[in-house]
Design brief:
Length: about 100
């Protein structure tokens, strides 16, 4: 490839890379969200309450909900989302998940 053709291609590559950097956060997997729930529970000192089975069930319901990809990514990182709308929806989804995922014997 000639130097001239390479130089002509660079702006197109730069645009493609910058667009990729602005791409939306992909939706995290159930496993990633479950691991994040476990991290949050451990930080709160309540990891014994959240068994793998319960965390997986809650994570599945959260991933299947209308919670934003960004908020789910934050949970997957083991952090709590801070946006008011996210908090409101997460609280609702957690209440619903508790009814399904947490059973008493």
């Amino acid at each position: 490839m000639s130097l001239k053709r390479l130089l002509l291609a660079l702006p197109a590559v730069a645009v493609a890379v910058s667009l990729a950097a602005c791409a939306p956060t992909p939706r995290p997997s159930v496993d990633d969200v479950s691991a994040g729930i476990q991290k949050i529970a451990k930080t709160a000192g309540s990891e014994s309450v959240f068994t793998d089975e319960i965390s997986d069930c809650i994570a599945k319901q959260l991933v299947d909900s209308k919670i934003s990809d960004g908020a789910l990514a934050t949970i997957a990182e083991g952090k709590e989302p801070t946006g008011a709308e996210d908090q409101k929806l997460i609280t609702k989804e957690l209440d619903d998940a508790a009814k399904t995922c947490v059973t008493t014997d």
